[in-house]
Amino acid sequence: MDFVSTRIITDNIKRLVRFYEEISGQPATWYTDDFAELKTPSCTLAIASKRTMALFGAGAARPADNHSAILEFRVADVDKEYEKLKGVIGEFAQLPTTQPWGNRSLLFRDPDGNLINFFTPVSAAAIKRYGV
Fold this sequence. Notes:
8 strands
C-alpha cells in the first residue's frame, strides 16, 4: 500500500485552490472544473467540489465539516512562514511553538475551517525521524 493523497471536498473550489497555492507556493493542476491537485515531493493534496461526491456516493463527505484531521506540511523554517502568512491568515490557532516531540509548529485554518500545521523538525530526534 502507498498513501498518496488527501482530498478536501469544498463548496468553493476556486477559493480553496487559490488559498493552498498561496500558502504552499505550489501551482495547482486542474483536471476538470471540479478537481485540482497540488503535488509535493511526498504527497498530493487533492481538492474537489461537492459535485464530485455524486460519483462516490451523495453525502459521503460534507464540505467545511472537518473536526478531527490536520493537514501537515513540513517547511524549512516555521518562523519565516509565519512572517509570510501574517498578511494572509486572519487568525492563527497557534503561533509558532516548539512541541514536546521536537517539531516547531504553526496552526491555522483554511477558508473551509480545515486545520493546517506548518512544522519544522528542530530537535535531534525529530530531525533524524524526518531525515532532514
